[in-house]
Amino acid sequence: MGEESAITGVEMKEEGLNNNVNTAAPPLHPPAPPPHFVLIHGISGGAWCWYKMRSLMENSGYKVTCLDLKGAGVDQTDPNSILSFHDYNTPLIHFLSSLNHDHQVILVGHSAGGLSVSEAMNKFGKKKIKLAVFIAATMLKSGFITDQDIKHGVPDLSEYGELNEVYDIGFGLGEDNPPTSMMIKKELQRKIIYQLSPQEDSTLAAMLLRPGPIQALTTAQFGEGEDVDSVPRIYIKTTKDNVIKPEQQEAMIKNWPPSDVYVLESDHSPFFSAPFSLFGLLVKAAVSFGC
Questions:
Q1: How far apart (Å, rounded) are the C-alpha atoms in residues 120 and 61?
Q2: Has residue 176 got a pLDDT over 90?
Q3: Which of 34, 143, 237, 252 could disulfide-link 221, Cβ–Cβ 3.0 to 4.6 Å?
């Protein structure tokens, strides 16, 4: 009797072990990688413009890449030598081309950086770009094709004075030819670009802004890619903008309607004047489109 009990006890233990083996949890799948934001500056700017946004986003677990376009930031190319938009935008195109075939990014462009985003959308479509975000940006499907495109997408700063009173102008091809580089004069930068931004940020910008290759930008044209409209787009309007004015933003939104429009009460540089609100909208955009 005692021997039978001992055998039964062993059998029960073995059965319990077998049950434990059978009910073990399956191995966990590795977590999905965080969304990858690629941030593109406007004319005269650089990757440095995004320092607040990069800190907020990386501290929240997002992957962030901030690029200098040709002749901007730490890229020491003379902007007067950059005569085509394709040349200017080469750093972004090379970066996207270098990504793994299944890697998609959230591509964000500010101001003239919107042209860089549009060219990339035409070239890569959804293969590389999961979502495009335009912040106070020139949003033109094929670049500057018509006079209307120029009216809507090029800043009109005539209220601040004549062209040579508002801009420092470079004539890399000689003064008998159109300008090759431009930058808003230092004494007008805060009034025009950063009027709602902290003083320390507009001071930093005054130290780092560089002339931008205006000929390359104003002649930007790109053939319409067949997948360009497959990429969802968000436009973030800036209601106190002195550069790309609200009515210009509205006109571009009407001509090429995005998937959604968000609104920020900020100057032309919300990465300085409203960084937390801008961060919240970028996260909202990523979540809304399953990024």
A1: 25
A2: yes
A3: 143
268 is catalytic: yes
- Give pLDDT, residue 21: 46
Which residue from 260, 254, 268 is spatially nearest to 140, judged by alpha carbons? 254
Distance in angstroms (rounded) separating the CA atoms of residues 234 and 132: 6
- The catalytic position among 152, 268, 269, 273 is 268
Tens of pLDDT, residue by residue over 81-134, are 999 999 999 999 999 999 999 999 999 999 999 999 999 999 999 999 999 999
Q: Which of 83, 144, 146, 93 is nearest to 117 (CA)?
A: 93
Instruction: Classify burial at 187, counting beta carbons within 10 Å of its beta carbon; exposed 0-12, middle 13-18, buried 19 or more.
Output: exposed
If you search the block for the tokens 């042209």, which residue do you land on? 115
User: One of 36, 41, 44, 111 is an active-site residue; which one?
Assistant: 111
- Record the pTM: 0.89
H-state helical runs in the chain: 2-22, 51-59, 85-88, 90-98, 113-124, 147-153, 163-166, 186-192, 199-208, 214-218, 246-255, 270-273, 275-288
In tens, the pLDDT along 144-154 reads 999 999 999 99
Catalytic pick among 68, 149, 201, 241: 241
- Measure the CA–CA gap between 141 and 281, rounded to whole angstroms: 23
Q: What is the DSSP letter of 143?
A: B
* DSSP state at residue 221: B
Place of tokens 């003239």: 112
C-alpha to C-alpha distance for 52 and 44, rounded to whole angstroms = 18
Give CA–CA dist 58/56, Å, rounded: 6
- Alpha-carbon distances, residue 220 vs 10, 44, 143, 285 (angstroms): 81, 16, 5, 27
